[in-house]
Amino acid sequence: MQDRIKYWKGIEELENTPEFAKNAHNEFPEFLPINEAKGESESAGMTAPRRDFLKLLGFGLAAATLASCEAPVRKAIPYLNKPVDVEPGVANWYASTYFNNGDFNSVLVKTREGRPIKIEPNPSSSLTPMGTSPKAQASVLSLYDNNRLRTPLIKGKEAKWEQVDSEIRSALSSVNGKVAFVSSTVISPSTKQLINEFGARVGNFEHVTYDANSASALIGANGGVVPGYDFSKANIIVSIGADFLGTWVAPIPFAKQYIQNRKVTADNPVMSRHYQFETIMSLTGANADVRVPIKPSEELAVVTAIYNGLSGQGASAPANVDKKAIDSAIKDLRANNGRALVVSGSNDPAVQTLVTAINRSIGAEGATIDTASPYLVKQGNDAQMLRLIEEMNNGSVGAVFFYNANPAYDHPLAERVISGLKRVALKVSFADRVEETAALADYVAPDNHYLESWNDYEPKRGFLSLAQPVISPIFMTRQMQDSLLAWSGNNTNFYEYIRSNWRKTASGTDAQWEKAVHDGVLENGTSMLALSPAAAGTMTAADAAGRAPRTVASGRVEAVVYEKVAIGTGSEANNPWLQEMADPITKATWDNYITMPRRMAEEMEVVQGNVIKVTYANGKTLELPALIQPGQAQGTVGIAMGYGRELDSMPTAKGRGANAFPVATVADNGILFTGAVQLEKTSSTVEIAQMQTHHTIMDRLVVQENTLAKYQQNPKDVTEYIRIATHEGPAKPAAISLWDDYEYKNHHWGMVVDLNSCIGCGACTISCQAENNIPVVGKQEVLNRREMHWMRIDRYYSAVEHEPKDYQTMEDPAENPSVIFQPMMCQHCNHAPCETVCPVAATMHSSEGINQMAYNRCVGTRYCANNCPYKVRRFNWFAYSNNDKFDFNMNNDLGKMVLNPDVTVRSRGVMEKCSFCVQRIQLGKLEAKRESRRPVDGEIVTACAQSCPTDAIIFGDMLDPESRIAKTLAREKGERAFHVLEELNVQPNVTYLTKIRNLA
Amino acid sequence: MISCIKRAKTKFLIAFLFALAASFGVSTTGYAQGASLPVDDAGIVSAGESLYKNNCVVCHSVGSDVVVGPGLKGINERRAQPWLISWIKNSQALIASGDKDAIAIYNQFNKQAMPSFNFSDDEIVSMLAYIKSAESAGAETPAAGDATAAAPGENVGTDAVGAIGGYLDIILVVLIVVLIVLVVTLLLITSVLKNYLNKNKQLDEYDAEIVNQRFDFSKIYKSKAVRTLVVLIFVIVLLDLTLDKAMGIGIQQGYAPSQPIAFSHKLHAGEHQIDCNYCHTTVYESKSASIPSANICMNCHSQIKAESPEIQKIYKAIERNKPIEWVRIHNLPDLAYFNHSQHTQVGGVECQTCHGPIQEMEVVYQYSPLTMGWCIDCHRETPLNTEGNAYYDNLVKLHEESTKSAFTVSSNGGNECSKCHY
C-alpha cells in the first residue's frame, strides 16, 4: 500500500488537542463585537438592552436624515503650476533601489499625483528582475511614518539646519581625538567616496562598518567580500545554517538563482538537491530536500565532517547528527564537482574557513562561485566595531557619527556602547527618528527616506544601481550625504556629486546618465565601489578542522538569535505591515517568542504561550512566551532579533517582545549569534497571535507533493485526482454538475501557482496589502481570527505515514517534518458557492471569470464566508480607517497617503476578498483599447504575481492561446496541475502545480 | 466642449456643399489671386480645422473680432500666401527683415509677438483653406449653422417621450370632456324622468320613496370602506413622496455652486470655441479630466484681460503660491470608479452627453443625476464604439454570430459590478 503523507498546520492539529478539537468544530468562532475591539471586555459586557438598541436606531436614522439634507461642499484643487510629467489620475513609474541590511532590491516605484504608493521589481535588473522582498514592498509605508523626525535635533530639541551645520562645523574643528563614522554596510560608491573625503578633511578618522546581523566571518574567510555565489548553476546545494532565501546576505538575488534550477517540467525533469543543516526552522530549511536539525555548536563538526569526507580522510559525524544525510551530501558533492555549492550562515571564522576550503575542493570557484563578481552587500567587520567600543570607553574617541547604525540597540554589547558614548564629546546621528542611539546623540541630523534621495549602489561587483527621489522630502530632513557635504565645506549637492562621480567612471555623457537613471541599473561591468583592503585571514583549513567544538555548560541550552523575514534587524520595526505579516514558518505576528522543540517543551511541561524566563550572559534575563516549533534542533531554542523596542518614536513596535541581541556571544573579536542560556518556566501566559491555526483541513487533499524520482518515472503519476463514484463508474467531479457553465468570450482570467517554485517568503502578501488598501488590524484582532489579508501563505508540515505503521518514524513526526507552502487566495470559482448564497447578489460572476465583490451592495450577512471552502473571505468587523482603536497607517493623514486611489477603502460591515487585482485588469484593458489592440500577455498581472521573487505565480488570460498561463496549463494538464478540493466541483480559476522534492 | 463632432460635421458638410456649389464662383477668385487654396478638398480642410483648433483658436477667431490677434476673416484676400507662410513660421524673423506689413501689424497689436509654429507649408495651406471655408460657410448659411449647433442632439429620447406625452394629454382632455357631457346628460334625463313621475302622482308610497330618495353623502364618507380607502391612499402617497425624496438624497442634479472665480464656460467654450482638451488636459488619457492649473489660464491671460478683477484672482493665487480652491460639482461616491478616457477616447462619448450644454453655461451646474441607474441606462442603450479598434474585432464577430441585437456596452459586460466597483 502506498505511503500516505499526513499534513498538519501545527502541533495542536497533529496531536488533536482538546482545544484544537473544540475549535475545529467551531469553524466560525466570531462573536459579535458590540462593545469593544479588545477581546477582554467583550465577554464581560455583552448586554445590549433592546431599548438602547431602539434609541440608537432612532437616533441613527435621525442623524442620517439630517446629515443627508445638505451635501458637504467638496473642493477640487488643481495644481498652481502643473509639473510637465504629472497627469492627475495617471501613474508614473521611476526606477530606484531599496537596500537595507543586505536586502537589496532594484525596484520600480509607482507614484500617483506625486506620491509613491507601490514598489515593484525592476525588470531591467539582472539581479532582482522578478520580485522583491516583503521589506522592500513595505518600505513605501515607512516613508509615510508619522514618527520620523520633522526637523534636526540639538540635544533633543528641535533646531534649524543652519544652526546644526555651524555647531557641528565648529565642533569638528576643535575635535579632540579620533573621529569615527559608524555605519552599516555602505554599498554606495559615491557615498563611500564622500565618507572617505570627509575623513581626509577631518584627519584622524575611521569609517567603522558593522552589520547588526553580521557576516564578518564569511567575508573574513573570503578576502573581504561575499563570494559571488550562483545558486542557479549548482546541482547540489549544501547550506549549514545559511537562510539564503530569507535573510542571509542577499536573499532576493539568491532566491531568483535558486529557483531557476528548481523548476521542473516533464521535458526537463531535473532539479537541484538542497541539503540544509540548521538549528531553527528557517525559510530556507523549509524548502530543503534534506533537512537535518543540528545545534549551533555542531556546525563546526558537520563542516569538518564534510571537509574530511571530501578530502578522503573519512567523515566522522558528530554523535547526534544524522550520519546518513552527511554521507549522502558528501557523495553528492563529490559526484557534482563544479556543479555544487556549500554555504554557511555561521559567524564562526573556523566554520567559514572550512566552507571556503570545501568550495575550493569541489571546484565551485569559477563555476558556482563567480570569483570576478563577489557580493558587496555585507562588509561589516565585528572586530573593528568591538575595538571602537573599547576606544570609546577609554576616551580616545572625540567624535562619532552614526549612519544606518543603531549599536545602542542592536549590538550585543549595547551597554558598553552606551557607557562609551558618554565619554565621546561629539555624537551625531543620521537616524530618521529618535531611536536608541539617536536618543544619546547631541545632534540628530535626520536622513531622508530612500524614496526622497539620490543614491547609487553596487551590490555585486560590476552591477550598478541607482536611486532617484520620487517625492520631495516630506519633512525638514536632509540626505546624510548632503549633510556631510555641508560639513566638509563642499557647496555641491549630492546629486551633482554622484553625477560627477559617474561622469568619471560609469556613464560619461548626459544621455548615458539619463538612460542609467531611467533604467535604474547599469550592468556593463563598470565597478565603482572601492573597498578598504581586508586583512588576509590567517586561519588555515587544517587549523579550523582541528578546532575543538565549543561546549555548552550542563544545565544550559543553546539559544540562536535569528533574523525574521519581515522584521529583519529591527530598523523598520515601526512598519505595521511588517509587524502584521505572518512569519513564513511560525505564522506568528506582532511579537517574538522562544521557538522550542517539542521534546524540550514536554520535558519542561511547557505549552505554547507559557512565558519562559531566559537567563543569559551575566545573569541578565528576558521573558518571552514559548512557541513549539517542529523541526527545531533538540536542546536548542531560537529567539528573533529586532523586537523589544521601548521607544516613543516606534509606537507600533513599542513593548512588543524582547530584545534578543544581548543573547548573542562576543568571542574572539567576533559575534556569534548564539548563546548558552538557562530556561525557566514562569506562571504567566502570553497568547501568540498566529494566523495558521485559524482553519482546519480535516484531512482533505489540499496540497500535493511527490518525489522527483517518481516524476522522472511518470509525470502523470505525481498528482492525485479525486474521482466521484457514479453508476457508470468513477467520474471527474466536473462531469456531474448542477450548474450551467459560463461562456467566456473576451477574457478568462486565471492563475497558476507553482508549489515547486513558492519558497513561502510572503512578499506577495505585503504586495497585496499595499495594492489593495488592506487594513492592519493589530494583535488582538489577529487573535480573534479577524486578520484582513486577502492572501495568505498556508504552511503545512508533513511527514510520511508509513503503512504498515513503522513505529520508528511514527514516533515523532514533529521532530523534523517536511514543509510545504501554499499561497491561498480567492479561487474565483466558476461554480462559486459564495455567489449562490448571497441574499443581495453582492458577489457574482463576471463575464471574464472573476468572482466580483460589490462592497456597496453587501449587507454583511457573512453567508458567503461561511460557504467558502477555501476560507478566503474577510469581513470588516470594524471601520479600520479613521478609528483610534486601530491606530495604524489608516488612522492618520500621512499614513493614508500610501493608499491606492483606484481601490475603495472598505467600511465596516462589508465582506471583502481577493479581486484578482481587478483595477489592474481594467486599466490594462483600457490601455489596450486606447491603443486599438488586444492586451499583451504579461501586461496585466496581479500584485502578488508581479512581486513574487521566484515567479511562482503566473497570472493571465486563459483564452489567449499564446499566453504563458494557457501554455502552462496545456503542458501540465494531467501531470502536476490540480485544483484544491476538486471534489467539490467549484471549478476554481486558480490552478496549483504539485510540488516535487528531490529526496536523497 | 470636446470635439463637438456634430457641429464640426455640420460645418464641414456645409463648407463642403458650399465649396461644391461655388467651385465656379468663389474659388475662381482664389485662383485669380495666384495662390491655390484647396477649399474643395474635404480632407485638407478638416485637417486644417483640427490644426487650427489646436493651435490658433486661442488667439484668433475665424470671424472679424479680435481675440488676442486679429480676426482672420478674409485673411486670404488681405495677404499673399507666401507672406502668410513666412509670418506663421516665424513672425519675428519677418519683422526683423523689415517687412512693412509685418511691422505694422506688430505695432497695431501692442507689439505682442505671435509665437513661431513649426508647420509645414502644406499644413499652413490646409489651415488657410479651413479659414476660407469657415468664413464662407459662416456668410452663406449662418442660420443653419447656429440652428444645428443649438439643437441639443442628445435629448432625442426625452423629446420623443415628450411628444407621446402631448398626444396622451389631448386624448385625456377629450375623454374627460366626453365624460362630463355624458354625466350632465344623464343627470338631465333623471331629473326629467323624476319630474314626469312626480307629476303623474300615481305612485304608491314605496315607489315614491325610491323615486324621490335623497342621496346621503354622509353615509358614504362615514362608511368603513371609504375611510380605509382614504387612509390607504394617504399613506401610499406619503410613502411614495418619502421614497421619492429619499431616493433624491445625495443626488445633486442641478447643483451650481458659486465658484471662487466667475469663470464662464459659455464665453470660453461657447463663444471662443476653445477645445475642452485645451484646459482639461487629461480628459483623453486619465480617469480624471483634471481641472486646469493656473499656468494654463496664464497661457492667454498673461495678456488678455489682465486687468479684470476675476483674472486678478488668478494672479494673486500665483503670487501667494496658493492654489485656487474650486468647488467640486460632480461628486461620485468613492465606491464608484469612473474613468474619463474610457468614455472619451475609447467610447467616443462627447462631453455634453454627461455634462450637458456646457458651452452655454455661465455657471456650471450638474446636468446629469450621476446615479447608478443613469449610468446603467446608458450602458444598456449605447452601442459600443468598436469601429477600427482591434480590441473588439473578435468580440464583434462573436456577438454578431450569436444575436442580432446591437453590441452595447452591457453586452460586453459593462453592467457587471466590478467594472465600476472595486
Structural account:
The complex is a heterodimer of chains A (1000) and B (422). By secondary structure, chain A is an alpha/beta fold. Helix content of chain A is 27%, strand content 21%. A 7-stranded mixed beta sheet of chain A has the order 7-6-18-17-16-8-9, sandwiched between helices. Chain A has a 6-stranded mixed barrel with strand order 22-26-23-25-24-29. In chain A, helix 5 runs parallel beside helix 24 (763-771), helix 11 runs parallel beside helix 13 and helix 14 (382-393) crosses helix 16 (414-421). The longest helix of chain A has 20 residues, at 50-69. Chain A starts with a strand and ends with a strand. Mean pLDDT of chain A is 86; it is low at 34-45 and 806-811. Chain B starts with a helix and ends in a 20-residue tail after the last helix. Chain B is elongated. Helices cover 57% and strands 0% of the residues of chain B. Chain B is an all-alpha fold and 422 residues long. Classes of the chains: A alpha/beta (1000), B mainly alpha (422). At the A-B interface, strand 2 and helix 29 of A face helix 16, strand 1, helix 18 and helix 21 of B.
- What's the average pLDDT of chain B? 79
Shape of chain A: globular
Cross-sheet strand order for the largest sheet of chain A: 7-6-18-17-16-8-9
Separate helix tally of chain B: 21
Q: Gyration radius of chain A, to the nearest Å? A: 28 Å
| Major β-sheet annotation of chain A | 7 strands, mixed
Give the beta-strand count of chain A: 43
- Helix and strand succession of chain B? HHHHHHHHHHHHHHHHHEHHHH
Poorly predicted sequence stretches spanning 5 or more consecutive residues of chain B: 1-10, 12-34, 140-161
At a glance:
The complex is a heterodimer of chains A (1000) and B (422). With 1000 residues, chain A is of the alpha/beta class.
